[in-house]
# Entry
Amino acid sequence: EPEVTQTPSHQVTQMGQEVILRCVPISNHLYFYWYRQILGQKVEFLVSFYNNEISEKSEIFDDQFSVERPDGSNFTLKIRSTKLEDSAMYFCASGGNRVGGELFFGEGSRLTVL
Amino acid sequence: SQQGEEDPQALSIQEGENATMNCSYKTSINNLQWYRQNSGRGLVHLILIRSNEREKHSGRLRVTLDTSKKSSSLLITASRAADTASYFCATEPYNNNDMRFGAGTRLTVKP
# Structure
């Protein structure tokens, strides 16, 4: 069964460092998302991406964050200068060829900022 | 905010009992979805109900949607220990495609 894969599964970084989280969405999907979840808390929307551009972003997704689909398969989330409060699980999700369908989630990347 | 708010935050029941979780939201939606998350894992889609539907079934799951009250409920019948997980509702607003999730209901089913 097709699945969304995320790497790394866990990354530890120093405050102020840049981090890139990678995702390989399901191949025929067109809508891509990043969410984050601070331990035990709610799943927070960061950004949605369609047709090679951001379609929606939340107030969390400030200038420190960026997304890219560099090669038609990978979908990356970059945090330019990490803060302690960026420590969380980051989930990538992809959706099929219509808005409002089921989202398929990866297993997440745990980011720990020291 | 648009995201759904689940209620209760935590629910503990015995195996075989039914579990009911509720979700409220604030604005017009295209659809509402329920997801499940095992501890430390990704979310898994359970069921989608469209704004023009009132009830939907899938196996032991029953979802209702009341758009006049902006609320939904998820019923899991004959619960099993393996149903222990967090359950999230997610709403897709009418005019955009960002799916917003609530804080979830943590369900514990005791064997």
